[in-house]
Amino acid sequence: MRNVTGQVARGDDFFDRESEQARYWRDLETDNLLLLAPRRVGKTSLMQRMRETAADHGYQAVFLDVSDAGDESAFVRRLYTTVLESDLGEGLWNRVKDSWLGKTITRVKKIGGAGFSIEFDAAGSTDWTRLGRELADALSQLDGRWLIQIDELPVFVLKLLQINHDAGRIQAREFLYWMRRLRLDYPKVRWMLAGSIGLDTVAARLNMADVVNDLHIVQLDAYAPAAAHGLLLALSREYQIDLSEPVRNHILTRVGWPVPYYLQLIFHELRNLDEAWPITAVQVDNAVERLLDPARRNYFDYWRQRLHDELGRPDSDHAIVLLNAVCRDPGGVSRDTLSQTLAPHVDDADARADKLRYLLDVLQGDGYLVEYEKRWRFRFPLLREFWLLRVAP
């Protein structure tokens, strides 16, 4: 097992999550899934692991990330190319090549294995609703069951919203209802939708909760303490670095929320020590301080940057104001305090209450905040330390 800090964990580098995978496969027998998971907890690695083992559960699976898709047509084209370029694409191509789709595709080139590289006619590919339905129809007629995993779908929907207020809302609503019809009309095709921000929160923002009410919600959190210890032990054995139980406990205390990515980062810092082993609690503290150094701010700064990408202004600015207030007290702040913090930016009391509710839902679902004993505090203490040092004025 390698010390992976920046890539998706695959093969022997993927650790645990056995109970979560078993539960998700059981749920897929009857339902499509909406996977809610804050960033950096290993959502993409888990989905890729399920894709790799899908055949063991009777599925042919494909995975695609749509966070950078520009519009609905780009989304559907990405879906087509992902399926056709997979090792299982030849059977699908034989079914659709003589259909209306054949007039839409302008170039097909066979690549390694049984996959295809395709290009779409610019005019025909604008009918994205028909393209999507023809794909689902063709998949449903093939032998076996298909699992389509789509990562960062909420980020794509939020991008539609940001086109402009009215047109964006209409586009997002039409797209989400179109996807719902696909899920309901083609039960042989299972869907696993995921994102660092909850699709349920986005649907609530659009006042259209029914667009996701056919999805079974499952959640992926940080490691349980036993799994976090197991990960650290596996790494220590692989690299022959002594991590005693008290030291492992200290690592978990400093992280506060045992997310795989940050456990791997701390271990990487400990690997690079020039000091004598075994590792001590003081060395762990030094490693954490190095992670919070300005030269390594990219380990955390994307938490701030992604707010602008996902929410757009002024909501991203409002969210940062709330986080600035919360980070000053490790015990958190009350909802009333947060409302007062937002008051200079949203005058109307009713509008402010709605805005605060929405932003807290987003920040909670996205892994920034958690409510405990009627106080909102950072879910991830290490992120709070970064925010206090590098973001809050």
Give an overview in words.
By secondary structure, the chain is of the alpha/beta class. The protein has three domains: 17-219, P-loop containing nucleotide triphosphate hydrolases (Rossmann fold); 225-278; 298-390, Orthogonal Bundle (Arc Repressor Mutant, subunit A). It has 18 helices and nine strands. A five-stranded parallel β-sheet has the order 2-5-6-1-7, sandwiched between helices. A two-stranded antiparallel ribbon has the order 3-4. A hairpin with a 2-residue loop joins strand 8 (369-372) and strand 9 (375-378). The longest helix is centred in the middle third of the chain and has 21 residues, at 165-185. The radius of gyration is 23 Å and the shape is globular.
Draw up the topology in text:
Elements (H helix, E strand, L loop, with lengths): L17 H11 L3 E5 L6 H10 L6 E7 L6 H13 L4 H8 L3 H5 E6 L5 E5 L7 H14 L3 E7 L1 H9 L3 H21 L3 E7 L3 H7 L9 E5 L5 H15 L5 H11 L4 H12 L9 H11 L6 H14 L3 H13 L7 H8 L6 H17 L3 E4 L2 E4 L2 H10 L3
Parallel strand pairs: 1-6, 1-7, 2-5, 5-6
Antiparallel strand pairs: 3-4, 8-9
Helix pairs in contact: 3-6, 7-8, 10-11, 10-12, 11-13, 12-13, 14-15
